[in-house]
Design brief:
This protein has 162 residues and is α/β, with parallel strands linked by helices. It has one domain: Carbonic anhydrase (Beta-carbonic Anhydrase, Chain A). 35% of the residues lie in helices and 18% in strands. It is built from five helices and five strands; from the N terminus they run αβαβαβααββ. The protein has a five-stranded mixed sheet, with helices on one face. The N and C termini lie far apart (47 Å). The chain binds zinc ion (ZN). Zinc ion binds next to loops. It comes from Trujillonella endophytica. Keywords: Metal-binding, Zinc. It catalyses: hydrogencarbonate + H(+) = CO2 + H2O.
Length: 162
């Protein structure tokens, strides 16, 4: 059975206890920006329920033009005010570097990506860089930001001092 078939079957079960529709504006007025890592089950990690928060994920949980696009909509249209960043230990982005990834893609496909992978070595420094980029953005209404690092070995979240 393909993974997607198992997922569709799992959804049949899950929908049986679905809590029902919620308002489109997140109830806890929060947007989470997190890495796409498969070991971070954000709803459990942060105690979130359906309808509580926006969740914006990408490789590294980095602040890109598209992250800003989503946060701008989140704040201006859907009323969120707090931003929680979730980076983590043992991130895939620590396993390569920007030039190395571009080389890898170019060798495999013949095309060098025009964007940077945004790799990093120091996770705390990367969280602070994300906070800096958010603070520099002129489009956001609120810059109430909490940066964190999730430990994939213990399940614990640690706040990063700005
Ligand atoms: Zn990651």
């Amino acid at each position: 059975m393909a993974e997607y078939e198992q997922m569709l079957a799992a959804n049949e079960e899950w929908a049986k206890s679905f809590p029902g529709s919620k308002p489109v504006a997140p109830g806890r007025k929060t947007a989470v920006v997190a890495c796409m890592d498969s070991r971070i089950p954000l709803f459990g990690v942060l105690g979130l329920a359906v309808g509580d928060a926006h969740v914006i994920r990408n490789a590294g949980g980095v602040i890109t033009e598209d992250t800003i696009r989503s946060l701008t909509i989140s704040q201006h249209v859907l009323g969120t005010r707090e931003i929680v960043l979730v980076h983590h230990t043992d991130c895939g982005l620590q396993k390569t570097d920007d030039a190395g990834l571009a080389d890898l893609v170019e060798q495999a496909t013949g095309h060098r990506p025009p964007w940077a992978a945004r790799t990093f070595t120091d996770v705390d420094a990367d969280v602070r860089e994300s906070i800096r980029l958010l603070n520099e953005s002129p489009y956001l209404l609120s810059k109430d930001i909490c940066g964190t690092v999730y430990d994939v070995e213990t399940g614990r979240l640690r706040q990063v001092e700005p």
